[in-house]
Amino acid sequence: MAKVHDVFHVSMLKKYYSDPSHVLPLEGIEVDEALTYEEGPVKILEREMSSTGDNTATTAASPNVDHSSSMDPKIVVGASETETSQVPPPLTFETKVSTKSSRSWVWEHYAVVTGTETKDKKAACNYCHQLIACASKNGTTSLSNHLHRCKKYPYNNTDKRQKTLEFKAKEGGGKALTTHMFDQESCRRMLARMVIIDELPFKFVEREGFLDFCQFMQPRFEMPSRRTLTRDCHKLFSDEKKSLKAYFETLSSRICLTTDAWTSIQNLNYLCLTAHFIDDKWKLHKKILNFCPITSHAGEVIGRTVEKCLLDWKISKVLTVTVDNASSNDTCLQYLRRRLINWKGTVLNGEYLHMRCAAHVLNLTVREGLKDLEDSIVRIRSAVRYVRSSLARAQRFKSCIEKERIESKSLVCLDVETRWNSTFLMLEAALKFQKAFELLETVDSKYVEELTPQSENDTRRSSKVRGVPTEMDWEYAKDLLPFLQIFYDSTVKMSGSRYVTGNVYMNEIFGISGLLNSFQESDDFGLSTMAGNMKKKYDKYWGNVERINILILIAVVLDPRHKLSYVQWAIDEAYDPKNAEMLKVKVEKVLHSLFDFYSAEKSPHKEVISQNQLREMDKMDVDAITVKGASDYMHAKYSQKADTLDSTHNKTELDIYLMEMKEDFHSPNFHILDWWRDNAHRFQILAAIARDVLAIPVSTVASESAFSTGGRVLDSFRSSLTPRMVEAIICGQDWLRKGIQPIDLEESITELEEMESGLTMEHSIINIED
């Protein structure tokens, strides 16, 4: 009887050959008892081969070992020489898996076995060693199902419904104890969410470090390919869009829109359409609806694109559309107004649909002021760039600061030429070190040499090398700072997307007009001239009362700290008497028309007498009433007086609101949306108006982009995507993020200064070349 070598425990053999179809007899078979049950076939083979040191010698000792393949080591179970003709072909365990038939992940958990008399392949589980049919006709389903049932498979839960405890971060801070259960689909959804929110490339899931991390954290998670991830991201976008569509169908308030143009690095044009609205809980929301390609910037093309987007979202109730001041947008709004009137979604026949972007007008006004001082700004910018270009130069500049005894924890910062707010910050910081720059001229010859053109034909003039800052340059910078400070603060206030901006618009715009008028009267000729040029640009957009959208003044009326009397006073301050009177009459008329419109919406089957009609009725004389004598005349006069007295006790919501005391303007705890939420039960119609009007955005861009005088350009990653995926990523990111954190340029500068300070401390600059 031949002795069996290179096999695992006899129980495995009994388990396999207990099937009547297997004719190999087990009687008399001797088994190597040193082999353990827990070791898989491959490990057994490796152990045996290493212990013998010569596989050929082992196979030679066993006359029934298959020598047909010298490349792949095999484990053979055979019979004695005398019984060879009665036994089936030998059973072999292959340690190398065919790449063609073993593509599934399940092969990582099995070793392939060649069948005996049936010539079918079997696979042995690496954990319990059970043999399972694995021929191509069988597929891998049975192998996968076995792993889910295998008691020794280390990644199986004893109970699929068993949850684990974890601490989850809460929005307000702290952590909460929650339960968690592994789910492959949920993990894939969270992976897609992470890629969208954090702006990660799709190939991120194929990076070695991330794969190792996920395998360590959760071995059961099957990492999808980047193509699968792309589909998951788009599916997540589609699911979120479906939910948002359903939400808009139930939204009772109107929606305010903004449009903004973007360009990819391939010069493809995109339109960003954003919705702004206030929900039933009086929370302001901003949702990017579409980020779609457009063929051109023609007004009708943009209008048709917006129309198509609104039809897709089933949105018809639109109050305003905020756009920049391009002439093509006038055509766009005319087209949209006609379409929205047909949809019966406008207010007051869409007369106040068009809202001009305040940030864009402010940018144009600032650029007009910067033109006069371009040379001075360029020289100061060049000086700042010089001292920041190397550690050695920075150290020499710091030495000048110490000698001049200038105390400041901050350093100079370089601006971004297309972002005028960074120019303001650069000038503000540089002025603190004016004396240090002047001292640098005497101690650093390269400073003067590098910044001064050698001749009029010096090619460096084209690169804006115009010399070191002069005394006059510093004086101009001092004069410019107050202007930029005003526009800087106003732009920040009017470009927010997470708070109401409509009620601050009038104060900022009218305030800028008054300040520019004051600067025009200055004795400083340069200051007066600059203010005059900026006022001309300002008046082009806001000097004409016909171009002002009255709804933005209604928003101030609906601020309980201001109301109508304040708006009327502000108009008198900002305009000449003729234009002021015209604008005040228009504001009051639109206010009452809005109230009548919303009253009719609240009670569509009830006849509503407008405020204008009531005023006409009050003017009716009793002579118009037919009387039959003196007594009748007296009773008629009394009845008219009684009706007037009764009307004082039945005033409208609007009358009561305007008559009540104003809220304290300087109260730090006042929030306009909270006030309307708490008083909506008293002013139901006015609350509906406020909910729509206070959602109007006065800027088309967020605060981090409002200062830019350049175009809006997509980054290289987004530009490399198809338009369909660009929209999915950008819209999905806007919908999924819990909150938008705007870029704070000042914080970035402070952080950069700290990093530079650390580098200076760590590195000696003695041997650093200039």
TrEMBL record:
Homodimer. Residues 50-70 have a biased composition (Polar residues). The keyword Disulfide bond does not apply. SUPFAM superfamilies: beta-beta-alpha zinc fingers, Hermes dimerisation domain, Ribonuclease H-like. InterPro entries: hAT-like_transposase_RNase-H, HATC_C_dom, RNaseH-like_sf, Znf_BED, ZnF_BED_domain_contain, Znf_C2H2_sf. It is found in: Nucleus. It comes from Coffea arabica (Arabian coffee). PROSITE patterns: ZF_BED (PS50808). Residues 101-157 form the BED-type domain. The lineage of its organism: Eukaryota, Viridiplantae, Streptophyta, Embryophyta, Tracheophyta. Keywords: DNA-binding, Metal-binding, Nucleus, Transcription, Transcription regulation, Zinc, Zinc-finger. One of its GO terms (cellular component) is nucleus. It comes from the Eukaryota. One of its GO terms (molecular function) is zinc ion binding. Its main location: nucleus. Residues 49-70 are annotated as: Disordered. The keyword Transcription regulation applies. This is Zinc finger BED domain-containing protein RICESLEEPER 2-like.
